[in-house]
Amino acid sequence: LFAGQTEFLKGVVAMAGMPPADRVEVCFAGRSNVGKSSLINALTGRKGLARASNTPGRTQEINFFTLGVERYLVDLPGYGYANAPLPVVEKWQRLLRQYLSGRQTLRRAFVLIDARHGIKKVDQEILALLDSSAVTFQVVITKADKIKEKDRSRVLDQVRGVLANHPAAFPEIVVTSSEKGDGIATLRSIIATLE
Ligand code: GTP
Ligand code: MG
User: What is the pLDDT of residues 94-146, one digit of tens each?
Assistant: First the structure.
């Protein structure tokens, strides 16, 4: 499903610019710099597809990618960027709310959590928004290569504890490294089987 079939479609800054909701869609949400763009690149096997950078907050638009003819992958702008001006943050929150509550074909939101940090307060706000929008979400741990094997269970326990309080949470957690390839095949098959 993935190889050679992903294309960048468009970046949008308002609901009106979004492509028609005519196919299965999944989105990727997470703090600035958590590795959303890198994960999309790893999933699709195309390094330069979604831009990845060292500068937090680089992805400012909601970026739509087509996956074959039947799916959209959506890269959401990172949240929790400390230096973002308030009007920018408010505009982004409004757009995110509209997107999550108004996109009929959105089947799952993948919420990316850095393996080194676990779920933080800013993440909790997004999880609450997903609950209230009734969008099923699944946690994807990123940058697993940055922690020691023995520290994995600690972050997983923390995440499981938080998910227990969220009705929209999908219980399975996917541990990934875009750098090393861990979990990428698993995530691909999850996306491929959503209907
Ligand atoms: P914004 O678009 O700014 O919100 O960031 P993003 O979430 O798209 O993060 P991005 O993919 O740009 O990655 C941020 C930084 O983390 C880059 O320097 C990446 O190279 C690095 N990174 C991403 N994934 C991994 C990973 O699995 N392992 C390691 N070691 N580094 C990673
Ligand atoms: Mg990005």
Answer: 899 999 999 999 999 999 999 999 999 999 999 999 999 999 999 999 999 99
Residues near ligand 1 (Cβ within 6 A): 30, 32-38, 52-54, 56-59, 78, 142-143, 145-146, 177-179
Residue 178 lies in a domain: yes
CA distance 149 to 153: 8
**Domain assignment of residue 158, yes or no:** yes
pTM of the model: 0.93
Contact 29, 113 (CB under 8 A): no
Q: How would you class 186 by CB atoms within 10 Å of its CB: exposed for 0-12, middle for 13-18, buried for 19 or more?
A: middle
| Rounded Cα–Cα distance for residues 53 and 9 (Å) | 20
- Quick check: ipTM above 0.85? yes
**Residue 163 identity:** L
3-state secondary structure of 34: coil
Specify if 1 maps to a domain: no
Provide the domain limits for residue 178.
Answer: 6-193
